[in-house]
Fold this sequence. Notes:
The complex is a heterodimer. Helix content of chain A is 35%, strand content 12%. By secondary structure, chain A is of the alpha/beta class. In chain A, strands 7-6-5-4-3-2-1-8-9 form a nine-stranded mixed sheet, with helices on one face. The longest helix of chain A is centred in the middle third of the chain and has 17 residues, at 206-222. The radius of gyration of chain A is 20 Å and the shape is globular. Chain A starts with a helix and ends with a helix. Chain B is α+β, with helices and mostly antiparallel strands. Chain B has helices spanning 45-51, 60-71, 75-91; strands spanning 16-17, 22-26, 31-36, 39-41, 95-96. Chain B has a three-stranded antiparallel sheet with strand order 2-3-4, with no helix packed on it. In chain B, strands 1-5 form a two-stranded antiparallel ribbon. Chain B is globular. Chain B is built from three helices and five strands. Helices cover 37% and strands 19% of the residues of chain B. Chain B has one domain (3-96): Orthogonal Bundle (Arc Repressor Mutant, subunit A). The A-B interface holds A 12, 14, 58-60, 62-63, 88, 90, 92, 114-115, 117, 152-154, 156, 182-183, 185, 224-225, 227-228, 230 and B 8, 18-22, 24, 26, 28-29, 33, 35-38, 40, 90-93. One iron/sulfur cluster binds at residues 24, 26-28, 31, 33, 68-70, 96, 119, 363 of chain A.
Amino acid sequence: MSPMNAQSQIEPPLGLILELTHRCPLQCPYCSNPLALERAHDELPAAIWLDVLDQAAALGVMQVHFSGGEPTAYQALPRLVARAADRGIYTNLITSGVTLDRARLARLAEAGLDHVQISFQDVQPDSADRIAGYAGAHARKLAAAARVREAGLALTLNFVVHRHNAQRVPRMIELGEELGAGRVEIAHVQYYGWGLINRAALLPTRAQLDAVTAAVEAGRARLKGKLVIDYVVPDYYARRPKACMGGWARRFINVSPAGRALPCQAAETLPGFEFPSVRDRSLAEIWQRDPAFARFRGTEWMPEPCRSCERREIDWGGCRCQAFALTGDAARTDPACALAPDHELILAAVAERPATPPAFVYRRMEGTQPSRTASAVITSK
Amino acid sequence: MNQARSAVLDSTAVPRFGVGVRFRYDQTRAAWVLLAPERMFVPDAQAVEVLKLVDGSRSLAAIVDSLAARYAAPAEVIAADVAALLQNLSEKGAIRW
Lengths: 381, 97
Ligand code: SF4
Ligand code: SF4
């Protein structure tokens, strides 16, 4: 098959993740935003986002995820939701919930919002607020979740789990039931960006991981047909990596607040890439022809052991950003894979996990004192 | 064929799409799709015909009767298939009873 045929056979993207802003009142130490956060004055104007949504619908995007930072901090959000809904795209709001008051929610529901996902830091208020770095956050989230259900919208509770809250997963699932959620996501921290800086403070033990997995399985059995429970495992105890984003540039386009299109939200950390901007390139052109999107798409780029591995089209060689963050080379097999030549990096991190966790490095605009691994990430920009 | 419907499904039960679940035709893929929070299903042709009859007021029996009349097939056979399909989608959160 000629490369041109291969190009024309690229399937349309399923999902579009719009990081409308990096502004957020919270400071989660595992935030998925990059270490170098984009400023408010660099944010795209609504007119460009509206155009991006039109293009996305034409390209075949089925779901749009309004994300951030805190997407409700972006003034024109209701207009964007209305446009996406009007174009037949499923709309999902990914929010911390702390600023989701009744008036705001009513505007979003009226605009045609389909689903709200609220992130929770814990079920124990003092611990939740400490992790979020925001006093009173948990109580506000509980109130917001109740309002989402009152407005008749679908609700997901997202819990990011780690060594400080892993033991409370059974209670997290119960909270989902109590608040009328249709879906609960139990997601272990992913150790990129801020999560990597805070790895020693967050990494659970193997026993904690096993208990969380058992709690998720018990919850699924008990709530079958009532509540969907999604589970994201941590790479650090896995034998095989996850198919990050369903494979590089296979399912998703992520757009940063300033308009850079990325195959995943951590991709901006990768050196040697010039990611295209939606300010001057069409979404279709980016998806079908951009070299940064093509770079790790499919299996052609793979080194051994991936190249001849039977799982190469299941996990697509794992996460490129994790490979880069840990080895300095984005084109290596994800060290999370037990077959990877660099797997000892993962084993060493587990072995070096301190008995007493260090303090959190909170996610802040003004940045942080970079640790050794993180400085590679920062200087790459 | 009541056994085939599993204990929870009686024929008067009314299936509906879960909150936040949308069943729509996608022009790009030329296919019906079922969209739900963080999920997308592409039902096969048979499932599409069933899902088009899910409106939150038709009972399971009414859906089966309608399909049986249209395809001139025995209701028992259709009932088992329809129940299995809807039960499966209910475990995935797309259908609620
Ligand atoms: S992870 Fe926390 S800090 Fe980061 S955007 Fe979400 S709520 Fe804000
Ligand atoms: S060798 Fe590569 S393709 Fe095979 S399981 Fe590991 S990461 Fe996946």
